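Supplementary Text 2. Reproducibility record for the structural model of the 482-residue chain.

All settings were left at their defaults, and a single model was retained for analysis rather than an ensemble. We include the record here because the model underlies the residue-level annotations in Supplementary Table 4.
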Amino acid sequence: MQDSAYFKNYHPTPGTWDEMFGANSQIRDHYQKVIQYLTRESIDDLNKKEDLAKRLFMSQGITFTVYSSGEGIEKIFPFDIIPRIITGDEWAFVEKGIKQRLHVLNLFLKDVYSNQFIIKDGIVPIDIIYSCPHFLREMCNVSVPYDIYVHIAGIDLIRDHEGTFYVLEDNLRTPSGVSYMLENREITKRLFPDLLPQCKVRSVTEYPNILYKNLLSLSPRQIPHPVIVLLSPGIYNSAYFEHTTLARLMGVELVEGRDLVVSDHKVYMKTTTGLQQVDVIYRRVDDEFLDPLEFNPSSILGVAGIMGAYRRGNVAIVNAIGNGVADDKAIYSYVPDMIRYYLNEEPILKNVPTYQLGNPDEKEYVFANINKMVVKRTNGSGGYGMLMGHASTEAEIEDYKNEILKNPRDFIAQPTISLSAAPCYMQGSLTPRRIDLRPYALCGPDGIEIVPGGLTRVALREGSLVVNSSQGGGSKDTWVLM
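Retained model, structure tokens:
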């Protein structure tokens, strides 16, 4: 099969875990059926499938927004037709690790907003907590239904050169991307209808049903049909396609802040027949814009008085407010200690070694080795504001050091890890590109459920380690085998 024309440009990157090729350049067992299928397809056939995928993404409006782009606001999310494949055993390990981590992060949020035992016992420094801009004193001693703060988590995973899974970061506020996971699977069904059942690929389509079930369970009113809404910032938000998709799949109303009003500490939705009380809000509006009476007074995206209704238990909000203190990148390095502290267990999934630049010794070490580091803002996202030391000029490094010195606490550094590579279809050949994985975990009163798959993001530029869509990345369908 390696003699196929598709492999003429496939040269596994030295020092990198290749998802398809194993030792001695042998195709791994779980990729065999896919590769056999591809070798029976002509380049013209695969080009037609690739073109069909692009047309389906365009016609269905599967887009994302790049505010800084001069090419217009809406962009098609690039999709690679070759799936990323994960074995059942690999997935069982990942699933167990994510459940352990999410359980602990919920315990941490409950603790840090109430008794703060983890601070008193010296596990997490108090200054790290109180200097975090997303630690909200407004949430202290607020009763959260079932003590669940993180109802939806997107845990970013990478693999190193040995194939070991690492958690790159935790997304616990308003994690996005799940709609692309769902749409990628629907597109793949159109492209390879026979291949999915042949490979015994597990389904991801249950995600909206699981989420809806969890939202129903959080209703403060014990009524037959609680009112659930999805609160969106509006059409100019980068994830608006996702908001509309999830609202449609769950059969709930998609609303903006102007559609809701608070009266007598209860939230109501404006309808043509009058006000209707809202029980559960799946919000995609960030904390600081959620309630202009408590946070940003100039916000027009949220609802005045919603925090008062939330404190009194008259409405449930998903995810809980104030979760950012748990996914701050400066807090990330303490998660393994949290697992040991709360559960008396060893972490199943490893952290990437992390240096906090607010620590003078660690900052000095990072500055001396910055060409081997990736430096990030502790509250950055989307791949913005990062320094890739190995790919930066001396001038760029010096400018970045000056930014760090203004407020070192706002930065962390991690050694450059060679992300694993997977085959991508490009111009008639299979070519390796770097990838990561964001599985989505849903936490409800009955426990944590993770649909078998996730969003595999791809650094489409040759040699790039940055997979974010805003930085030129794309995605591919993620197959978990039975």
